[in-house]
Amino acid sequence: MTASVNHDQAALWNGGSGSAWVDNRVTLDQMFVPLARFLIDRARETARQVPSGRLLDVGCGTGGTTLALCTALGEQWQFTGADISAPMIDVARSRAAHARAPVEFISADAQTHVFPPARFDLIVSRLGVMFFDDPVAAFANLRAAARPGAALHALAWRSPAENPFMTVAERTAAPLLAGLPPRVPGAPGQFGFADRERVGQILVASGWDDVTLTAVQFECTFAQADLRAYASRLGPVGQVLARLAPQDREPVIDALVDAYAPFVESGKVHFTSACWHMAARAPRL
């Protein structure tokens, strides 16, 4: 794994949060199928202009989106997935080997990893770029890894207010749990890129051209049977719950599951993901 200057995020994603994502990878991949399809459509647009090339997936997690992109674009393209989480990269490599997919997965902090210069024709990310402690440095590093004229397409969460499903656990658990950390606007984390103007400034300051941010939303689902594990393992609430004794943890989880009831219908959980589509292009020579 390459060195990271973002020690808090490295510890988080190589510890409990990384393990939670590994354990819930099937649910999470199912949840975010519409987001993956969106990025596949953007990738196909690029492939129509660049029939063969190299793609980098930033914050690739356990590799679901990277592997879907590989299937969609085919053998004319080469694929690399990068993530700060070594446990998730281990799973991604196993999945690629099982699928016999020609994808390279690297455990790396995309802010500091020394990618080959001017290597990638397309850089994508599904909810993986909000965690850098110095986002300008990170996107400058990615821009240096992009070939002249290469495209960037990334999805990031909009505000907590626009994503009520994603805040159910925190709102419900706040009066029940001590030590639940407050969200800090703009800090590395899920909603770190909620401010459209700030994100646009980050991309421009890091040297990208043709920057646009478009509000998009996706209707997402997963099985109701997976809700308890989702509610109890993921996010800031999951981190606090992991430190509790079972007799203290289970009543809180019961309350969380009940709080998600408005989103449950016919055995499935339904919610809207409100995101920014961040698009840009590396400067042409």
UniProtKB/TrEMBL annotation:
Keywords: Methyltransferase, S-adenosyl-L-methionine, Transferase. It comes from the Bacteria. One of its GO terms (molecular function) is methyltransferase activity. The keyword Methyltransferase applies. One of its GO terms (biological process) is methylation. Residues 56-149 form the Methyltransferase domain. The keyword Ligase does not apply. This is Class I SAM-dependent methyltransferase. It comes from Pandoraea apista.
